[in-house]
Amino acid sequence: MFPSNPDELMDHQSRLLLIDGNALAYRAFFAIRELTTGDGTPTNAVFGFIRMVQQLHRQWTPSHVVVVFDGGLPEERMALLPTYKAQREAMPDALSDQFPLIEEYLLHARIPMIREDKQEADDVMATLAMVACEAGADVLLATSDKDMFQLVDDRISIIPPTKSEIRMDAEAVREKTGVAPSAIAEWLALIGDSSDNIPGVPGVGPKTAAKLLNAYGSIAGVYARLDDIKQDKLRESLRAHEEDVLRNLRMTRLRVDLPFAVDWESWKSQAADTKALHAFFRRMEFNSMARELESPSLF
Question: Which end of the chain has the smaller Cβ count within 10 Å, N or C?
Fold first, then answer.
C-alpha cells in the first residue's frame, strides 16, 4: 500500500523521473547493431540503455528516479480482449538475455527498479505519477508510448527517451494528436492501437477521431449525437462498432490505483557504487564508460 502521507517524502521541490525500462531496452537493441563482448555476448541493448539513462539524469537531475519494467499482461485487459498484443513477436533471445545485465547495471548504479507481476509498466508508472503529483512533486515520464499522453498536465510531462532535452506538455500533446491529454484514452479507443492489437473503428483515423471528440466533447457525446454526423459511412461505422469502442475505452484508460509498495525514501537519487560499476563496465568491455569513472577521487 501507499504510505499514508506521501507528501512527507515528496513535495513541490521534488522531481520524480519514471523510466519505461522495456521501451529503452527495445529502442537500444534495434538502434545499435553488432555490439558484443569478445566472447560473443550481445551488449548492444545494455550499452544503449545505459547511455539513455545517463543522458536523462544529466538533463533533468531528478531528486527521485525509478526504472519500471513490464511484469506481464493484466488479467482485466486479457479478459476484455484475448487477442490483446497477440500479434507481437516474441522478444529476441539476444535482447532477453541482456535484461539481467541491465538489472545488474541498475544495481551498481543504485537506480531502483520495479516489476509488478501481471502488470504493464504503463499502469505502474501512471499510479506512481499520480501519487507523486498529488504530493506536489514534478513528474517526468521517460517513454515513447502514446498511451502515457493521457497523464500529462501541469505537473506531469513526457520526455522522449531519444530526445531527452524535449519536455512534452499538454500543448505538445495536442499539437501531436489533435486532442487534449484528457481525451487521449477516448481518442485511442476510436482509432485503435495496432501496437497493442486493439482494433479501432473502420474509417476513423487520428484526424477524424480528433474532429469528433473536439466537436462532441467525448465518446458519450459522439454517440448521443450520432445522427448529427453527416457522413453516412462514418456514422454507420461508428454505430456498428459502438460496443468495440466502449470496450476499447476500458483498455486504453491507464490504471492509477495499483496497490503496491511505495518507498520514496529508497528511490531518492544517489551516487553509484563506482567500484562495482567500473568492474561491470570492464566486463562488458564498455571501455569508454569505464574511463569516465577512472579518477583517483573515485577509488
Answer: N
